[in-house]
Design a protein that fits this description.
The chain has 316 residues and is mainly α. It has 2 domains: 100 residues, no CATH class; 185 residues, hpI Integrase, Chain A, CATH 1.10.443. The chain is 54% helix and 5% strand. A 3-stranded antiparallel sheet has the order 1-2-3. β2 and β3 form a beta hairpin. The longest helix has 22 residues. The protein is elongated.
Length: 316
């Protein structure tokens, strides 16, 4: 099908292969998303294609209708998959289906009216006060040991403190560059969904610790704020290993001996829970975290200013 036919609103009379259109969908709709998100979308679409092909013997997009989308979600549930997994698959096929329709490869919305499975809000995967205290104490113990200029222990603590103080996603943190730390704000932060957040406020004590890291412990070699031992961009796996190193010490250095289960996103949950406990304002929390889903339209009525967020941050 030519691009000209698409533009004038004609629809193909011959088969439109969903598989053949996947590369174009990725290039036009998903460019700029994280590798992890792309991997998830690829896995989910593969699952749907396998289901669709078993139903119709092919992948002709013209045959995809809302009833097929609903049948796919029902199939996942009957096959024993969790509702969260089914909802994730639905989000992936909705993105692809809407792209097919809006790009005029098909003349209907194949996911129209299909809603997510209702779930009770999950419990935040946050560190409690005792765990957070033990984690920081373990980071302090590691820093107190004699270390060389190339030691990563101070960097690791700064990463943990920054994640907890800002609520940033790990990919947002790893994308930060030196010139984005201005005063006690991180500016022009590249967020999920190819959005740019103008400014993310952090506590003054945290920004001072970040500057200590930059001036005394950061390994040069690129303009990324947090670097690896070679001065390049730190990886997600590198951060996970760094945080687990601290958690391991936290689980063995104290009489309790309790292990602390840690992952980078847990600090975002911790920040969100503490902020909500201090304000009981879901709109402020959503704005702080850069959430779009669920607050796309009501967020415009929020009256919280940067100064109000600054005041709240000083209380938590």
């Amino acid at each position: 099908m030519s691009k000209e036919l698409v533009k004038v609103g004609h629809f193909p009379s011959e088969m439109v292969s969903m598989m053949d259109l996947v590369p174009k969908y990725y290039a036009e709709e998903l460019s700029g998303l994280s590798p992890l998100t792309l991997k998830v979308r690829r896995t989910d679409l593969k699952k749907f294609f396998e289901f669709f092909q078993s139903m119709y013997g092919g992948l002709d997009a013209r045959l995809w209708y809302p009833r097929d989308s609903r049948l796919f979600i029902d199939f996942l549930q009957r096959d024993g998959y969790a509702a969260t997994y089914a909802n994730r698959n639905l989000a992936s096929i909705k993105s692809f289906g809407h792209w097919l329709w809006h790009s005029r490869y098909i003349d209907h919305d194949p996911v129209k009216g299909i809603r997510e499975i209702h779930l009770d809000p999950p419990t935040p995967q946050a560190l409690d006060e005792r765990e957070w205290h033990r984690f920081q104490k373990a980071a302090d113990l590691l820093i107190a040991k004699p270390r060389s200029k190339h030691s990563q222990d101070f960097r690791n603590k700064v990463i943990a403190i920054t994640l907890e103080a800002s609520g940033l996603r790990i990919e947002e943190l790893l994308s930060l560059r030196l010139d984005q730390l201005v005063g006690n704000r991180l500016i022009n932060v590249a967020a999920k969904g190819r959005k740019i957040r103008a400014a993310v406020t952090i506590k003054r004590g945290v920004s001072e610790m970040m500057r200590d890291y930059i001036n005394n412990w950061r390994i040069d070699g690129s303009d990324y704020l947090f670097t690896n031992r070679y001065g390049g961009r730190l990886s997600r796996n590198g951060v996970a290993q760094a945080l687990n190193r601290i958690a391991l010490v936290a689980g063995s250095a104290f009489s309790e001996g309790e292990k602390i289960k840690i992952h980078p996103h847990k600090f975002r949950h911790t920040h969100a829970k503490r902020l909500y406990d201090a304000t009981h304002d879901p709109l402020l929390v959503a704005r702080r975290l850069g959430h779009g889903s669920g607050t796309k339209y009501v967020g415009r009525y929020a009256t919280t200013s940067d100064q109000e967020i600054d005041d709240v941050l000083d209380q938590i």
